[in-house]
């Protein structure tokens, strides 16, 4: 926990503004317990000798206890909600600046768990921690003092069941639960995978005419799940039930009566009330420990995520109304620092289309991500219009550079809505012209789900003709197109680059197409050959 909430951690930074409110909430929660104890003290005095003063005091203290409890809960949850909001913004801001190579680790369920489940777990831990501290530390310490004062040290024997159960919750149950926890996660993962496979049965297994594999996997996973639940009930839940039974009032009553059956009524009442005031809250100990355990695990995952290195970004600005030369100096197009690739020294010319070719794995796609500012540079320098890319602000990079990755998909909506993501202020006529340049003749109202792979690729290419970015980076933009359509698209791109002073960099495996580009950059593991400037 020291690393998770150290002064330099992102979690501590997000939590710091909420600490004063959480401190007040803790004091109010402690005050709730003190008021409840004061009410019990008044009841004990009432037993010793009736007086309306003690009755009124008990009622007043109980009312104050309820008011303080509500106030503490509101303050704690409000402070935690602000913390959760800051943490969600920090996670989202960190997420968008992670390089794709790191972002690939956080997909699907893992990302959902991080953004939703883990933040919610941390919410429960922090929101309930002040009241848990008051319940299990502050109030018991005061109560023990009152118990000794009113009934003598021998009355502490009534706390033995609670002590035994507390030790059981703190030592035995966590060890049993830890053994079962990993198996439970694996089983649930298998069930989720089997359900996903089965849900894809219609489109996938229709091709092969066989669904027995998915059904068999699902049945096997569910059977394993049931067996694991039975094992957990027999080991963990049964043990918890035994511990809980020790905390019931009957155990405390038995001990108190055994040691104090000859005591005066007020002393016996004090021993009963104050011992129960300590033992009864311990019934929530397991619940509180669950909050703490899940919150700590969530904090660990969130801390690990927030410590992932981001792509560096500066605050420099750049105007879009001038042609932009893109210059590489000693750039290594690889994420590995020990790559044998010779550093690149090259200048992509404005108004030209440059084809980047090379063997698979040489770093072509990585080079595009480096040029887009999406990956950190291991070595070298990239400058756009004379400004270092890592010194430019994120908004400036996004305005100046557009990256169209390989196999980019579309949103499940119309073609017009997809194009509006790039040019929201463009007219329908502008969209139709862009589609024509991309060699696609479709109605703007056509739904993306009805398009083929090649048509999806051409809708994305239409975005190139709508984008205000001065630098366009394309990764295999014609891989799903026939040779004639690919030729026409490249012709349109060359015209677009020349007419609008765009710098277009295109990664392609099509050597015939690369020969038609204005310039060509060939990446090799041992040497670089550049044609053009």
From TrEMBL:
Keywords: ATP-binding, Membrane, Nucleotide-binding, Transmembrane, Transmembrane helix. It holds the Pfam family ABC_tran. GO terms for molecular function: ABC-type transporter activity; ATP binding; ATP hydrolysis activity; ATPase-coupled lipid transmembrane transporter activity. Residues 326-533 form the ABC transporter domain. SUPFAM superfamilies: ABC transporter transmembrane region, P-loop containing nucleoside triphosphate hydrolases. The chain crosses the membrane at residues 21-47, 53-75, 133-152, 158-178, 240-261, 267-286. It is found in: Cell membrane. Residues 24-294 form the ABC transmembrane type-1 domain. InterPro entries: AAA+_ATPase, ABC1_TM_dom, ABC1_TM_sf, ABC_transporter-like_ATP-bd, ABC_transporter-like_CS, P-loop_NTPase, Type_1_exporter. It is a multi-pass membrane protein. One of its GO terms (cellular component) is plasma membrane. This is ABC transporter ATP-binding protein/permease. The lineage of its organism: Bacteria, Pseudomonadati, Pseudomonadota, Gammaproteobacteria, Alteromonadales.
């Amino acid at each position: 926990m020291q690393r998770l909430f150290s002064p330099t951690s992102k979690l501590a930074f997000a939590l710091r503004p909420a600490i004063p409110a959480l401190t007040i909430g803790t004091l109010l929660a402690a005050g709730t317990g003190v008021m409840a104890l004061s009410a019990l003290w008044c009841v004990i005095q009432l037993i010793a000798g009736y007086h309306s003063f003690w009755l009124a005091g008990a009622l007043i203290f109980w009312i104050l206890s309820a008011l303080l409890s509500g106030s503490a809960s509101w303050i704690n949850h409000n402070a935690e909600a602000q913390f959760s909001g800051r943490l969600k913004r920090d996670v989202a801001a960190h997420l968008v600046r992670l390089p794709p190579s790191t972002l690939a680790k956080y997909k699907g369920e893992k990302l959902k768990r991080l953004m939703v489940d883990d933040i919610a777990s941390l919410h429960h831990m922090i929101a309930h921690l002040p009241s848990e501290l008051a319940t299990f530390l502050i109030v018991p310490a005061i109560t023990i003092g009152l118990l000794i004062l009113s009934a003598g040290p021998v009355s502490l024997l009534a706390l033995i069941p609670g002590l035994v159960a507390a030790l059981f919750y703190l030592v035995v149950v966590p060890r049993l639960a830890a053994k079962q926890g990993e198996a439970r996660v694996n089983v649930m993962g298998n069930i989720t995978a089997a359900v996903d496979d089965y849900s894809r049965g219609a489109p996938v297994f229709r091709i092969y005419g066989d669904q027995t594999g998915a059904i068999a996997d699902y049945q096997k996973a569910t059977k394993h799940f049931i067996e694991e639940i039975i094992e957990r009930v027999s080991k963990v839940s049964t043990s918890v039930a035994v511990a809980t039974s020790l905390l019931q009032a009957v155990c405390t009553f038995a001990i108190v009566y055994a040691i104090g059956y000859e005591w005066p009524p007020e002393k016996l009442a004090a021993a009963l009330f104050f011992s129960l005031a300590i033992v009864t809250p311990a019934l929530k100990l397991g619940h509180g420990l669950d909050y703490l355990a899940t919150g700590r695990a969530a904090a660990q995952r969130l801390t690990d995520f927030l410590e992932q290195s981001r792509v560096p970004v500066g605050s420099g600005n750049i105007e879009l109304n001038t042609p932009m030369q893109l210059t590489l100096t000693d750039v290594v197009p690889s994420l590995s620092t020990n790559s044998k690739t010779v550093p690149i020294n090259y200048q992509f010319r404005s108004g030209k289309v440059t084809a980047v070719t090379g063997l698979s794995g040489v770093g072509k796609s990585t080079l595009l991500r480096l040029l887009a500012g999406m990956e950190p540079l291991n070595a070298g320098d990239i400058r756009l219009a004379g400004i270092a890319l890592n010194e430019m602000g994120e908004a400036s990079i996004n305005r100046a550079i557009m990256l169209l990755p390989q196999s980019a998909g579309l949103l499940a909506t119309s073609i017009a809505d997809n194009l509006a993501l790039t040019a929201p202020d463009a007219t329908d006529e502008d969209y139709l012209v862009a589609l024509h340049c991309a060699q696609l003749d479709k109605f703007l109202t056509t739904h993306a789900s009805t398009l083929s792979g090649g048509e999806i690729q051409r809708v994305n290419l239409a975005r190139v003709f709508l984008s205000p970015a001065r630098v366009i980076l394309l990764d295999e933009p014609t891989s799903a197109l026939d040779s004639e359509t690919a030729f026409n698209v490249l012709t349109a791109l060359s015209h677009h680059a020349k007419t609008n002073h765009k710098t277009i960099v295109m990664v392609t495996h099509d050597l015939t197409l690369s020969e038609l580009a204005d310039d060509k950059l060939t990446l090799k593991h041992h040497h670089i050959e550049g044609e053009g400037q």
